[in-house]
Design a protein that fits this description.
Layout (H helix, E strand, L loop, with lengths): L1 E3 L9 H9 L16 E13 L2 E12 L5 E6 L10 H12 L5 H7 L4 H13 L1
Helix pairs in contact: 2-4
The structure holds zinc ion.
The site of zinc ion (ZN) has 8 residues, from loops.
Length: about 130
Amino acid sequence: MITLYVEENNPITPCFYNSVLNNLQFHQLKCPCGQSGCLSVHGYYNRYVKTEDGKVMFRICRVKCDQCGRTHAILLSSMVPYSQISFQDHLQIITAHEKETLSSITLSSALSFDESNFRYIIGMYLKH
Ligand SMILES: [Zn+2]
């Protein structure tokens, strides 16, 4: 996986993701194996992220390294690997948990997911 760092105030929308990819200099990307200039587009897959506007589909780009042969998904820093919940929302839930102000009812209505999502995020946070 390759994470592209974006400002937190950027919207987490497919349009924004696509514009970042369109402006990306693929030859300047570095593979986790340490090589640069060896990545080319390998394909795309669909991934969903829960946002204020509901579940939104992203067309995630995969690149392949011609040095190590591995493929990597390109994600934005506002996305959390293996999670449909954005980094911002993770932070909001963890902050509320730390401050012991977590009320899943208030948060659920503000965000668009249920209590099992909260328990999972807090569990992962405590584990790591
Ligand atoms: Zn590589």
